[in-house]
């Protein structure tokens, strides 16, 4: 795992956590170019998706979060102004927020997806299912039209097609079982974003009890999973709006 910093002279910190099957460069290079004049940016090259360390595989969401947490405590005293977690990065973000040493003002989970994996009692079924899901992902890399249809957006330019089979398997295996840490949203000014074309955003409304967990949900019309990353100026404005705070659910054009 490596960390890349930009706009170091700026005081407001922005931590960027990319999703699965991509890299920090593919996801965030556009945003960094327009945001580094305002923010001190920390972009994380997560294990399994770090082009500088292709031999290192991801182990689990929890393992990634622990490494990042220790870095934030050591380098920044655990204080970060804004976290933007894309897709799987949103899950990593919730794990980070739960560490009592971490203090975050604004937490944004873009494309937060609730994947309900079976909770097997024995190891063999877990391995079989993890292997099958890994095969589906590798197939999708070779047939990007299917991948884009599932996500509701053409994101071929952001996909890291050299992701290892072991990394994908480890992540799938570690999700059986995985308990989503919705309580983490109560520890910051929290936001969940979705594109209206991506599947599963209604799950957030159905699965997360809004009486128990505090977050603001924003849905962007005519957009798919992670598509704001392709609109860096718009994404920067949305980050700034979230940091200033808005207090209702609504759909944005």
Q: Beta-strand level of the residues, as a percent range?
A: 15-25%
Roughly how many Å apart are the termini? 36 Å
The portion of residues assigned to helices is 25-40%
Largest sheet: 8 strands, mixed
Q: How would you name the oligomeric state of the polypeptide chains in this document?
A: single chain
**Low-pLDDT segments, ≥5 res:** none
Strand order of the largest sheet: 1-3-2-4-5-6-7-8
Strand-and-helix sequence, N→C?
EEHEHEHEHHHEHEHE
The structural class is alpha/beta
Q: What gyration radius follows from the Cα positions, in whole Å?
A: 17 Å
E-strand count: 8
Q: How would the global form be characterised?
A: globular
The number of helical runs is 8
Mean pLDDT: 89
Description:
- The chain is α/β, with parallel strands linked by helices and 253 residues long.
- 38% of the residues lie in helices and 19% in strands.
- An 8-stranded mixed beta sheet has the order 1-3-2-4-5-6-7-8, with helices on both faces.
- α7 links the parallel β6 and β7 (216-220).
- α2 packs across α3 (88-97) and α4 crosses α6 (165-174).
- The termini are far apart.
- The mean pLDDT is 89.
List descriptors.
253 residues; alpha/beta; 8 strands
Task: Summarize the helices and strands and which ones pair or pack.
Elements: E1 2-6, E2 13-17, H1 24-35, E3 40-45, H2 61-76, E4 79-86, H3 88-97, E5 103-110, H4 123-142, H5 144-151, H6 165-174, E6 189-195, H7 201-207, E7 216-220, H8 232-244, E8 250-252
Parallel strand pairs: 2-3, 2-4, 4-5, 5-6, 6-7, 7-8
Antiparallel strand pairs: 1-3
Helix pairs in contact: 1-8, 2-3, 4-6
């Amino acid at each position: 795992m490596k960390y890349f910093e930009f706009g170091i002279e700026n005081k407001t910190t922005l931590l960027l956590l990319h999703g699965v099957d991509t890299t920090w460069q593919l996801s965030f290079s556009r945003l960094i170019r327009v945001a580094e004049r305002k923010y001190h940016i920390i972009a994380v090259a997560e294990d399994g998706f770090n082009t500088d360390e292709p031999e290192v595989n991801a182990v689990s969401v929890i393992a990634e979060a622990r490494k990042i947490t220790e870095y934030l405590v050591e380098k920044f005293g655990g204080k970060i102004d804004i976290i933007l977690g894309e897709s799987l990065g949103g899950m990593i973000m919730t794990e980070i927020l739960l560490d009592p040493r971490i203090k975050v003002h604004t937490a944004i989970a873009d494309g937060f997806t609730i994947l309900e994996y079976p909770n097997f009692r024995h190891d063999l079924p877990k391995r079989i299912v993890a292997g099958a899901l890994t095969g589906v992902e590798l197939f999708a890399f070779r047939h990007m039209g299917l991948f884009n249809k599932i996500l509701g957006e053409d994101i071929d330019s952001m996909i890291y097609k050299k992701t290892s089979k072991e990394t994908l398997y480890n992540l799938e295996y570690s999700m059986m079982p995985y308990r989503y840490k919705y309580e983490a949203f109560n520890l910051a000014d929290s936001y969940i974003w979705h594109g209206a074309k991506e599947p599963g955003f209604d799950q957030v409304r159905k699965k997360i009890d809004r009486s128990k967990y505090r977050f603001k949900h924003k849905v962007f019309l005519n957009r798919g999973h992670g598509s704001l990353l392709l609109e860096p100026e718009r994404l920067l404005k949305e980050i700034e709006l979230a940091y200033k705070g808005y207090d209702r659910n609504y759909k944005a054009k």
